[in-house]
Amino acid sequence: MPDTFHLRNMTPNDREEVSRLIFHSTNDYYVSIGRDKIFQGDELAPSEMFDVYEKIDSGEGLVAIDDDTGEIIGSCFVHPRETHVSLGIMNAHKDHFGKGVARTLLARIIDDTTAAGKPVRLVSSCFNLDSYSLYTRAGMVPFATFQDMYVEVPEGGLAHEAPAGIKVRAATLDDVDAMAALEMAISGISRVNDYRYFINNEQGFWSVSVIEGNGGLDGFLVSCGSNALNMLGPGVSRTEEIAAGLIFDQLN
């Protein structure tokens, strides 16, 4: 008989099992295509991601449960927002590749999102052609491409001067409405609870900078400095010069 599984919503009790699944399935895939492992060290390192998403989107994620063993063999974080639903990190256990786990998770998310009258959005690596094929076969289409950039910042900070004439400051909760208006104007999306979460910084590894403009903001940028991930974004800006000022500030 073929293997069978069912889906249910993610719970806080899934933290360690989902974290291990993300760690090993992601590394196994990248090794299989001849690339370096994404995650190093402790297999529970992705638990920081789980904690973030559980805080912002508690109970929204999905897991696939093997009917014979009761083990989690697939997972996907789901991020409902005012204007859309974002598809988060998708993983399937290597022993269950090709058995429709990811396809079933994706179909459930698309069905639920369609019923809510919203579009589904995601960012996917072009290195992972299997996931690209999964998403395009489900009817999703590429909208824009982005280039990953890796920057090593010296302990003393960047050597060159900050962009001239651009004043950057730390964001406050009073900036949330202006951040929402700016991202809606530039990207057509809004995620107000995310902005509040980043600015509140309960976990101690988020930073948010803004640049003021005439009657609002001209740009904002978030950065993450957790043990599992050092990353710039999300962020938007009206000009390249404003983006440069925000990037310089957050890198330092």
Top CATH class of the largest domain: Alpha Beta
Distance between the amino and carboxyl termini: 57 Å
Write the H/E string, N to C: EHHEEEHEHEHHEEEH
Number of strands: 9
Mean pLDDT metric = 92
The biggest sheet amounts to: 5 strands, mixed
Contiguous uncertain segments of 5+ residues: none
Helix content: 25-40%
Which strand order does the major sheet show? Answer: 1-2-3-4-5
Q: So, the CATH homologous superfamily of the largest domain? A: Gcn5-related N-acetyltransferase (GNAT)
Name the beta content range: 15-25%
Radius of gyration: 19 Å
The number of distinct helices, counting runs of at least 4 residues, comes to 7
* CATH-derived architecture of the largest domain: 3-Layer(aba) Sandwich
> How many individual domains?
2
The structural class is: alpha+beta
Tell me, what's the shape?
globular
Task: Describe the protein in words.
This protein has helices at 15-32, 47-56, 101-115, 129-137, 176-187, 192-200, 240-251, and strands at 5-9, 62-66, 72-80, 85-92, 120-121, 169-170, 206-213, 216-225, 230-237. The chain is built from 7 helices and 9 strands; from the N terminus they run βααβββαβαβααβββα. A 5-stranded mixed sheet has the order 1-2-3-4-5. Helix 3 links the parallel strand 4 and strand 5 (120-121). The protein folds into 2 domains: 5-137, Gcn5-related N-acetyltransferase (GNAT) (Aminopeptidase); 169-251, Gcn5-related N-acetyltransferase (GNAT) (Aminopeptidase, 3-Layer(aba) Sandwich), CATH 3.40.630. With 252 residues, the chain is of the alpha+beta class.
